[in-house]
Amino acid sequence: MFDQIFDMIRQSGQSTVMDNDQVPNEHNEDVLKEAHNAVVSGLENVKDTDQANGLFESVQSGSAQSNPAVQQISNNFMGSIMNKFGISSGAAASIAAALIPMVISKVVGRNNQQGGAGGFDLGGLLSGLTGGNAGSTNTTQSGGLGGTINSAGRKLGLDKDGDGDVDLRDLSKMF
Length: 175
Known about the structure:
Blueprint: H1 2-18, H2 28-44, H3 49-60, H4 68-85, H5 89-108, H6 122-129, H7 144-155, H8 168-174
């Protein structure tokens, strides 16, 4: 699952990082790794149902960049690449604004370009990140935060194949 996130970052980061003159070529891979670390640790910090629902809904509405969790992930990523690689604040802000919301959107599934097969499951991802427990008493019996995300997706009518979860198979049926 973490490899899938890194693959999404690598695909999304081609023009944003690798083709960016303001990122020295010797740091391209490390900048992508920093994006991965920021996304994974940011998703690990989504600790309760309200945050998870807010993240899910902001991505579904196309406004991921305005979600507080996404903004925090972007800020952490910006600070990291500025400090570690000497990337200017303007370039770091531009990279973060282009890369982080896009990757979060792909993780959630709205703009996923991985195709309909393969079963990439946001609920499973978040459950894996949180060890099956959202770290809050505000979880569901069906798998902590992952169950909450799937439940929210079903309520929004996103379980298009009727199998009880929201995954890429559902996404493929939307288009």
